[in-house]
């Protein structure tokens, strides 16, 4: 285990430890109808039982014909029309078949010429076309299996189902899939100063924004929220709610009370009813990030204690908790988002001892940071389109390439 300055655990080490601990947990399976499968994680691999498309078909509205080298200027009789949804007929010698997009290619035809490239005439009820342009053999035909071939591995175990995956499963005719059961998560916000929305504030109080934000993040991940609660800074109350949460949750997230203040009780409570794995991470914002577990007679339930500052919650959830949570849900692919190098629109001349996740926007090819980067200020979370990741000890000037983590990749 490597430690950065001030004995802080590097972010990547923490994520690696969390991911390997998640590998030990085995979520249960269930069968799920396709229309309820969005956001779920496959517990089976999907091997295609058919070709997609299932038959050769036309990519254009036009005419199907048997290709030859000298089609230009030829006149062909149009024998009949084949529509999408119909079985294919056979093509007659020296003739063409009127064909619509998606219709099955007639037997004997190997090319579709689009209707814009022919001159169409009708004389005495006989339809003919004159070919204005020599087609390439095979053009405008979508081959059976060109998207998915029968027997192909389409998705491996641990794939999260987004809209594209649902579409692909539907194109295979799959009505139900085996997925992992939804992860049960409890969210506990701590702090005497917290008031729930809708209530009046008195001096010294603030609204509890962390819990609704975490609940929203978790809902977007298809998690089963067991409770979203707020407890005052009283160790007995914290102990009570954590012990209760451990009876029915697969993961407990807390916010606040993670640091070293007199009212920060999370660590002392955890040492009594569970254990602490680590709580000093080289991440800015979010240094006092507690990873531990709550033990009951029957089970040990992992807990991640996020710092109280709302921006620290945003960053630590997205960077640390999200890959871990996805892994606990059974996801095995694309857990860590990819960053790209982009020119900085600002300078960092003094290095620091924690990896920093600045909230930035990519504007005219340069990364511009939000003007308020305090861990207590949340506006930059909504404003930013990504993070600039500044490594421990890194300095740079305007125009230097630095790491950019687009928000789309983080949520991906
Ligand atoms: N002497 C030291 N003080 C602090 C250190 C340190 O190393 N030594 N670390 C600082 C850092 S960095 C952070 S981050 C904070 C985190 O502390 P806690 O996790 O104990 O968080 P709290 O003190 O409970 O709250 C911090 C801040 O956030 C507000 N808050 C809390 N919960 C919510 C909520 N649900 N919704 C909105 N806002 C919330 C709270 O009122 C505080 O302003 O510690 C530093 N101190
Ligand atoms: O690490 Mo804390 O989140 O900067 O204020």
TrEMBL record:
One of its GO terms (molecular function) is molybdopterin molybdotransferase activity. It catalyses: adenylyl-molybdopterin + molybdate = Mo-molybdopterin + AMP + H(+). Its EC number is 2.10.1.1. Pathway: Cofactor biosynthesis; molybdopterin biosynthesis. GO terms for cellular component: cytosol. Residues 186-327 form the MoaB/Mog domain. The keyword Metal-binding applies. Gene3D superfamilies: MoaB/Mog-like domain (3.40.980.10), MoeA, C-terminal, domain IV (2.40.340.10), Molybdopterin biosynthesis moea protein, domain 2 (3.90.105.10), Molybdopterin biosynthesis moea protein, domain 3 (2.170.190.11). GO terms for biological process: Mo-molybdopterin cofactor biosynthetic process. It is an enzyme of class 2 (transferase). Its cofactor is Mg(2+). Keywords: Magnesium, Metal-binding, Molybdenum, Molybdenum cofactor biosynthesis, Transferase. Catalyzes the insertion of molybdate into adenylated molybdopterin with the concomitant release of AMP. Belongs to the MoeA family. This is Molybdopterin molybdenumtransferase. It comes from Aquirhabdus parva.
